[in-house]
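Support case: user asked for a sample of complex input and structure output to validate their parser. Sending the pair below.
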Amino acid sequence: MEISIIQAILVFVVAFIMGIDQFSFLESLYQPIVTCPIIGAILGNFELGVVVGGAYQLIQIGSMPIGGAQPPNAILGGIMATIFAVSLNMEATADGVGAALGLAIPFAVFGQYAVTLTFTFMSGMMAKADKCAENADVKGIRNINFLEMGVLGCLFGILAVAGLYGGSALGETLQNFSYDFSWVMAGLDAAGGAMKFVGFAILMKVMMSGEMWGFLLAGFVMALLCSANATTSGATLILCAFVGAAIAIYDFTTQTKIKQNAGAGAGFVGGDQDGI
Amino acid sequence: MAYNIPDKYQDLTPAPKLDNKTLNKMVWLSCFLQASFNYERMQACGWLWGMLPGLQKIHTNKEDLKASMAHNLDFLNTHPFLVTFVMGIVLSLEQNKADTKTIRSVRISAAGPLGGIGDALFWLTLVPITAGLTANMAMEGQIFGAILFLIIFNVVQFIVRFGLMYWSYGLGTKAVTLLTSNAKEFTRAASILGIFVVGGLIANYGGTTVRMIVGDTQINIQSLLDGVLPKLIPLLITLGIYALIKKGWTPVRCIILILVVGIVGCAFGIWSGNSQAMDADGNTLPGGYTPLVEWYEYPVPEEAAE
C-alpha cells in the first residue's frame, strides 16, 4: 500500500485526538466504532473501516476500563486493525476482517504500555502540582493537564504512524520485545496498582486521629464482606457509604445533643431533630 | 510537604452564590477530569482544574485560594460523568467557608461510591447497549451506526453532567446553612464517614497480590495470606506509606520506592503483574509474565494445555 505523507499526518492527528479522548473530552470518539471509519476514510477505504469498527467494537464491549484497570488499548488496536484490513485488502464482512483484529493485538498491548508509562510518570508531576497550588498558580495547574494530554497524544500518534509504516513486521518485533521484557512491564503494572496507596495515606493523614482507627478498619471489613458476595460486589462502595453514613449521622446527632445539654447538667433529653 | 494546609480559611464570610456562567464553565471543564490522570492521586489535578473557575470567585483572599487549591489536590477517583455532583457539593461547602478538613472528608465520601455507580450505569449498561446495537449496524457497512452511537452517548452524558451540577449545588447550599451552627460536630461526623470510606477504598481498589507458588507441594502464598486476612497486602502497604508520610517522606519519594519495589519484585517473580505480553502463537504468559530470575516454577495451567 502506498502511503502519502498527508495520510501519515492525518493518522497521527487522529491518533493524537483519540489518545486524549479515551480519558478526557467526550470519552466516546475513541471507541472503535467511530475511530475505525475515520482511519478507513483516510486510507481510502471507508466502508471497510466501518465494518472493522463494528467488529472491534463488539470485542471491546467486554473490556471497558473500570475502576482504574486498563485492558489492551482499543484505540491503537482499532487503528491498526483498520490499517491491516485496508492494506491486505480484506473482504468487508464480519468474518473477512477477523484476521486484522488478531494482527492488531501487539499494538493494542503497546498502546497500553504507553498509558501505563504516562500514568507512572505523571505521578511524579503531582509534587509540581502541589507547588503550583501553594503559589495559587492557576496556569501551572492547567499546564500540567495540558502536558499529560500532549504526552499521551504524541505517544499514540507516534505508535500509530510507526504501525502504518512498519505493518505486521513491526507487530512481531513489538511482540517479541514485550515477551522478553515481560517482567519490566509487569513490574510497572504492579507498581502502578500500588501507587494509589500513597493517595490513601495522604487522606488518612488529614482525617486520622486515635479513635478513627476503628472506623478505618470497619470500612475495610465492610468492603471485604460486600465484595465477597456476588450480588453486592458491584455496589461495594455505595454500601460502605451507607453504613458509614449511618455511623456518621448517629455520631452527629449524639454530639450535637451533648453540646446542647452541656452545662445544663441534664442527662439525656429526647429530641426529634434530624441529623441533617 | 512544606506547606501546611490550614484548618480554617482566613476570610470566613460566605461568598455570594456562583452565577450560571461560572457553573457552566465548570461543567465543560469537568470533561477534562482525567486529563492528568496518574497512579498516585488519579484525577486530582484534573479535578482542581475544573474547580478553579468557582474557587477563584469564592476565595478572593489569596491565602485562602492557596489553601483551597492545595487541599483540592487530594486523591480523587470518581466517575468522570458523575463528577459534577461532587463538584456541586464541594462548591457549596467552599462557598460557606467550611473547615478544610470537612471539605476533604465530604469530597472523598461522595466521590468514592459514585465511581462504582457510574461504572455500572455507563460502562456496564449504556455502552454495551448502545454500542452493541450500533456495532451490528456498522458490521453491515452502515456508518449511521457510529453516528447514532455518538449522539445517544453524548446526549446522555451532557444531560447527566449539567443536571447533577445544578441539582447538587442547590442541594448543598441549602444543607450547608443548616449545618453551620454545628460545624465542629459536622466536621467530626464527616471525618468518620471519610475514614470509613477510605477503609473501604483500600479493600476495594487494593489489587496488589503476590504470585509465588513454592515448594514441591505448590503452596500458593497468596492463598495463605488470604487465609490470614484478605487484602492484607494493600492494608499493610497503606499503613506503611502512612507511617512514612507521618515521618516526613514526600509523596514523590513514596512513589519512587513503590516503583523500585514493584520492578525489582517482579524481576524475582514476587508480585502479581500483567505484562499482557504474548508468545508467537498469541498465548499469554502463565502468571502474567516471566521473571528475570526464576527461582520457583510457575505451574502451567492445565486447561491451556488441552
